[in-house]
Amino acid sequence: MSDMIEEFRATAARLFGDFATPQVLEAAETGTLPQALWDNVNESGFGLVLVPEAQGGIGAGLAEAAAILQAAGEHAVPGPLLELVLGNKLLALAGREPTRVPVALAFAPGLVEAAQPLALRNVPWARMADQVLVVARTAAGTGLAVVPVQHLEVRAEIADASGEPLGRFDLPAGTEWLPLPGIDYEACLRRAGLLRGAQMMGAMRWCLERTTAYTQERKQFGREIGKFQVVQQMMAEMASAVVAAHAILDAAIAEPDDAALVAAARSRLGDAADVVSAHAHQVHGAIGFSYEYVLHFRTRRLMAWRDQFGTVAHWRRVLARGFAGKKADEVWPVIAS
Amino acid sequence: MTASSLHLELPALPGELAGLRQQVRRFVAAERAAGTLPYPDKVGLGFSPEISKRIAAQGWIGMTWPKKYGGGERSALERYVVTEELLAAGVPVGAHWITDRQSGPVLLKFGTEAQRQEWLPRIVRAEVAFCIGMSEPDSGSDLASLRTSGKRVEGGWRVNGTMLWTTNAHRVHCMIALIRTAPAEEKNRQAGLTQVLIPLDSPGVTVRPIKSMVGLEDFNEVVFEDVFVPDGNVVGAPGNGWNQVSAELAYERSGPERWLSSFRLLAELVEALGPVPSDAAQVEIGRLFGQLMAVRQISLSIASMLEAGKTPNLEASIAKDIGTRLEQEIVRTVRNIVQQEDLFAGADLPALRALLASAQRYAPAFTIRGGTGEILRGVIARGLGLR
Q: B-contacting residues of A 200-229, CB under 8 Å?
């Protein structure tokens, strides 16, 4: 991470640290979006990070946006922050004004027929958003639908492990699809996938640091549990998973149109999330299982986030397809060009 | 180092590396076309002095060393690209690999001018090769406990002891051995160790090949009985051996040989599955390639750090630990997919079949050689501040 990007992350982390208190995290679980936090996000301009300067934005790149979302993941910030950051970029591409209201972002499966209603499922934050954005493949190319939520009947899905609200709704027939020049459906999904990956990385780094510290605080048998080799081995596995996932995530953020690299990053992040959640809880013991101890706000999100904006299985299929049909000698050049 | 600072910078990879990569691929293709480079049917570094000589003729041994010793004065990243390409293609590089990676750099960094002039130009031409003497019958992970000793005599040292698991000792010319020349200190067990260069045809040296569970004779027992090592063959300062071997750890542990050992097996599986693999196979294969590409990214970052003059020993421990575990996981997963898809029922697939059997027999060594996973994870835990 360059110094400037790290500065971005640290600034965002300070703001999120002030507002994403345990009380706010708890309130969000019962369906209250933290308004003060949301107002501060808008005031800070984080929502405009990917919007070009000519359209009133900050005009920064994906690495800066990812730094903000990593900080958000670190603090388990509730709310559709990713959706605001990427949604505003898509709105700008479609020639629309950026928004400040909570938005949901959905990717429609398959090819969308404008004449048919479109069923969208498992959309994070749809129930609490004022506006939904839908990216779809249409006959005319990649399109963006911008729909005020009051025009829709949004119903609750059974919640996933994160407790963050999921909604389902039908987009009515005849919904207008704005063209998205210069970016296609897959490219949008890759960016959403990477930003979710950055949030995961923030949550995993928090887990690694907190758990490392815990092993130096907690004493059993007269010494810190971190002095036991069996615990050290688990912490090493956790650290290695985080370092590996971060390395490939950074590489993919730098090359977001390298489909294999992005898919590899999300696949690796999925594996890392499993190791980090399992080891963080095992090392913490009972205290980490309590609601009061805030570890679960990160680990529960990791359980859900690993499969959002492309499931881990989706990204593995994408990656594998790049190798299908290759002769043995042709496999390596797919990885190293 | 703390958990929060454990983060690798994106590697800086100059564009001209792509040209070098293509050059290595053309070399491999030409050798294949000429019938001088068979397709690999087993894992492990094949040993071929002839291939090593042709690689040397390309200038790919001692690439980073000074020109006055025959080296190429090229960057660590250029060397990285060449090694990665040769390994991915399954080229038998075993006859120069350890010498190029470790022995040459030790001589370059710590050897005398006379030692450098005597050995480096011949290494670069693949005329001599080295092995490393560090493991002993009673001394493995606990390196500082080694007992092979050097006693001061007129003009040099008299060496007695036994080295074990010494790769290639039966077919190379010299060993750089770590021996004890002074007793360990109470507070510093690592004191008193010295690196010495021992030609393996010296009087008193007996090399006995040991058959491994793979069946090949790769490694050996080497017994020293009153072997005279002249002062001129001491590498570096007597007593500085521990620091010297530690300095090479990042090179030894982060290279592509730590995650590509079973790559050829995976590549053959991809070929065998054809253009439309089952969904289950795709998801499993995607997982392996995701892991592989991530550890490659770590390896590239470390190569970039080495080029910048850093010594990323902790990061190298991470690379080797997860890289070698992945090498083993590739073997298990390929086996599982072969069984699920019943690949051997309808086709011979000789390369895949042979590689799978070979890899299953070789895999236990991946996480032992060059530092066990448990030791590496101990190094990582120390980096986290736990030890």
A: 205, 208-209, 212, 215-216, 226-227, 229
A318 reaches B (C-beta below 8 A): yes
Between A55 and B251, residue with greater pLDDT: A55
In terms of DSSP bridges, do strands A131-138 and A118-124 run parallel, antiparallel, or are they unpaired?
unpaired
Q: At what angle do helices A312-321 and B279-307 cross, to 10 degrees?
A: 80
Q: Is the ipTM of this complex over 0.85?
A: yes
pLDDT (average), residues A260-273: 98
Residue keyed to tokens 């007593």: B239
Residue B83 sits at the chain A interface (C-beta within 8 Å): no
> What's CA A24's distance to the chain center, in Å?
19
State the DSSP code for B275. Answer: S
Taking chain A, what is the end-to-end CA distance rounded to the nearest angstrom? 23
Pair A163, A231: CB distance under 8 Å: no
Q: Are A174 and A187 in contact (CB under 8 A)?
A: no
Q: What pTM, to 2 d.p., does this model score?
A: 0.96
> For residue B15, what is the nearest residue in chain A, using CA coordinates?
A337
Give the sign of the dihedral formed by CA A231, CA A234, CA A240, CA A246.
negative
What is the residue type of A12?
A
Q: Cα separation of B234 and B79, whole Å? A: 28
pLDDT of residue B130: 97
In this prediction, the residues of chain B whose per-residue pLDDT falls under 50 are none
The residues with which B158 forms a beta bridge, in sequence order, are B151, B228
DSSP A164: -
Q: How far apart are CA A71 and CA A12, in angstroms?
A: 6
* A325 in B contact zone (CB under 8 Å): yes
Please check whether residue A190 is in contact with residue A257, taking contact to mean a CB–CB distance below 8 angstroms.
yes
For A121-132, what is the mean pLDDT? 94
Q: Which residues make Cβ contacts (< 8 Å) with residue B304, sequence separation at least 6? A: B9, B11, B12, B13, B77
Name the β-bridge partners of A134: A106, A145
The counts of H helices and E strands in chain A are 12, 9
